[in-house]
Specification:
The complex is a heterodimer of chains A (291) and B (257).
Chain A (H helix, E strand, L loop, with lengths): L2 E11 L6 E12 L4 E5 L6 H9 L6 E6 L2 E2 L9 E4 L11 H13 L6 H11 L15 H13 L5 E5 L7 H16 L3 E6 L2 H7 L2 E6 L2 E7 H8 L3 E7 L2 E7 L2 H13 L3 E7 L4 H13 L1
Parallel strand pairs in A: 3-8, 3-9, 6-7, 7-8
Antiparallel strand pairs in A: 1-2, 1-4, 4-5, 9-10, 11-12, 11-13
Helix pairs in contact in A: 2-3, 2-4, 4-5, 7-9
Chain B lengths: L1 H17 L2 H23 L4 H34 L2 H6 L5 H34 L5 H27 L2 H27 L3 H13 L9 H5 L6 H28 L4
Helix pairs in contact in B: 1-5, 2-3, 2-5, 3-5, 3-6, 3-7, 5-6, 5-10, 6-7, 6-10, 7-8
Classes of the chains: A alpha/beta (291), B mainly alpha (257).
Bound molecules: adenosine-5'-triphosphate and magnesium ion.
Adenosine-5'-triphosphate binds next to strand 2 and helix 1 of chain A.
Chain lengths: 291, 257
């Protein structure tokens, strides 16, 4: 496992009365090597807080976090992590080139041989070659997001943690960003990224961690999540020569329905699970919990 | 690796600050203020040297300390509010190394600014037809030491409070730091035991910043004695270290939200 989170708890304190506000409650999940895992949850679910705890930007209240088998507070492990924050802001008065050089030197040391090549390669990859010598203060939001992902990739990290990498980008930008993420995966990086753009999650990853109100509701393959939430079955049978389609809401109902049809000697031709989209599955989950 | 990281952060800080237009607005203010100080010095007939020197040097002192406090707290404000810090603290650099890098970068900016002030001061002196004396320049070292010390104080207050409060408390700290020498003299003469104890506590709790005020030497056209010099350096190192360590201790535990 590249990333293992066990029973992570994080409490904030109310600024005035100092009351505890539990935001993460026993969050546990793991990210296997070379996988692309989507971290899904609605606004305020605790995605950013989880990511910041993993990275040590926030101090966890309790729990155990391991990155590449080492405790996450171990400085040596940070050489292998790339991170893109949510809504990134960066130094205004550095040029794109200086900016990437700064991060490259921080992670790789000051006289890393291939840094210049790597900078040019990344600028090309994110489509910012033309802005190499422009200061970041002149960058648009989309350009900042791109230089942000370049910054996260400058040292060829083994684990890439991206907080909403696709938000704030136009459709073109989104597919470019997706291409960059796929490219990093092809180079052998493990990617953990949060999002609430479900289409993009659907497009990019096979595995999901779903969080709701600070608790992990699901962790595993995307298909399993969709089928777990996809409750509708369609039962096709013939009744006196007519084909009848009936929708059934749950697996138990389906069984009893089949039993009763069989008793009536009806011919069941087929049963279909209605494939619901990830988006529907996600909405379903939210509905279910708020009941 | 760690030294490299400190160096990289320092260099980056230097570049970022030195290119910021806000800095130049501040420097402009400072230069105008400086000119004013000299102009006031000009008003009196006799002892032109004495007066313009003391006004000019005092002007530089105030401007420079103001810039120090402003830069120190602006750094914290900017770095944390603008979240650039997130992408740095997740790199292989400890928070103490990061803070040290920032400190050195800002100190480098301040050195450049001080050199600029010294140049401006010399020019004004030349224009006024005043003699250029070596004794004048040692007082600038005192200003620099005081600035290095107060920068750590700003770091400390910024790490526990919002920028406005940090600036206010550091200014108070600066004022009290200059006042404790007079208090010390009062305490020494006092008969009251309560005043003696309380006064001593206050005197010990603040650095004697007046020990870094070498302007009287410059005005008297004498060199700063070795004893004063070494005490000044010692005072600066000791207090800077104390406040820096306190800042690191707080900064390490801080949730960067
Ligand atoms: N510094 C803080 N102090 C108190 N509460 C906080 C703090 N930061 C976050 N929270 C609370 O923690 C919860 C989770 O926030 P978080 O930013 O992790 O959500 P998120 O899943 O990233 O949401 P979004 O999709 O909007 O980015 C929210 O209810 C938020 O109000
Ligand atoms: Mg978030």
């Amino acid at each position: 496992m590249v990333l293992e989170v066990n029973n992570l708890n994080k409490n904030f304190r109310h600024p005035w009365n100092l009351q505890k506000i539990p935001v993460l409650k026993d969050v546990s999940f793991s990210v296997p090597e070379k996988s692309v895992v989507g971290f899904l949850g609605s606004n305020g679910a605790g995605k950013t807080t989880t990511i910041k705890c993993i990275l040590g930007i926030l101090h966890k209240t309790s729990g155990d976090i391991k990155i590449l088998g080492k405790d996450h507070a171990d400085i040596s492990v940070r050489k292998h992590i790339g991170y893109l924050p949510e809504r990134p802001y960066f130094y205004n008065y550095l040029t794109a080139h200086e900016f990437l050089k700064f991060y490259g030197q921080l992670s790789l040391g000051i006289d890393s041989k291939n840094l210049e090549n790597k900078i040019d390669e990344l600028l090309g990859l994110v489509g910012l070659t033309h802005a190499k010598n422009s200061m970041l203060k002149s960058f648009s939001k989309g350009m900042l997001q791109r230089i942000g992902i370049a910054q996260a990739l400058i040292h060829n990290p083994k684990l890439l943690i991206l907080d909403e990498p696709l938000s704030g980008l136009d459709p073109d930008g989104r597919s470019q960003m997706a291409a960059v993420i796929n490219n990093a995966r092809d180079q052998g990086a493990t990617i953990f990224f949060s999002s609430h753009l479900l289409d993009d999650v659907d497009r990019l990853c096979k595995d999901l961690v779903v969080i709701k109100d600070g608790q992990v509701r699901f962790c595993g393959p995307k298909e399993k999540f969709v089928s777990r939430q996809g409750r509708t079955y369609q039962l096709f049978y013939s009744d006196q020569g007519k084909e009848i389609i009936e929708s059934v809401e749950s697996l138990e109902l389906l069984q009893s329905k089949i039993d009763s049809l069989r008793k009536q000697n009806k011919l069941i031709s087929r049963v279909e699970t209605e494939r619901i989209s990830l988006e529907e599955a996600f909405r379903e989950l939210n509905r279910e919990v708020s009941l | 690796m760690s030294l490299v990281a400190i160096r990289v952060v320092a260099k980056n800080t230097y570049l970022e600050v030195i290119r910021d237009r806000v800095l130049y607005v501040l420097v402009m203010f400072a230069v105008v203020f400086l000119g004013l100080c000299f102009a006031i010095g000009q008003l009196s007939y006799d002892e032109i040297f004495r007066l313009s020197m003391s006004m000019g040097l005092a002007g530089i002192h105030i401007c420079f300390i103001g810039l120090t406090i402003f830069l120190g707290s602006a750094f914290f404000y900017r770095e944390i509010e603008s979240k650039t810090i997130y992408t740095i603290v997740v790199r292989p650099i400890s928070r103490s190394q990061y803070l040290l890098g920032k400190y050195l970068g800002l100190l480098a900016v301040l050195s450049v600014l001080l050199l600029g002030f010294i140049l401006a001061f010399t020019l004004i002196q030349l224009l006024m037809g005043l003699p250029i004396l070596a004794t004048t320049y040692s007082s600038f070292l005192g200003v620099f030491l005081e600035s290095a010390l107060l920068l750590t104080v700003t770091f400390f207050f910024s790490s526990i409070s919002k920028p406005f409060i940090a600036i206010t408390t550091t200014v108070c700290f600066f004022l009290i730091g200059h006042w404790v020498s007079s208090l010390d003299a009062l305490v020494a003469k006092s008969d009251s035991a309560v005043f003696y104890v309380a006064g001593n506590v206050i005197v010990r709790a603040f650095p004697q910043l007046e020990a870094l005020n070498w302007r009287p030497f410059a005005i008297a056209k004498v060199h700063v004695g070795l004893e004063d010099l070494s005490f000044g350096i010692y005072l600066t190192l000791a207090w800077s270290l104390l406040f820096f360590i306190l800042s690191v201790m707080i900064f390490r535990r801080k949730d960067l939200v």
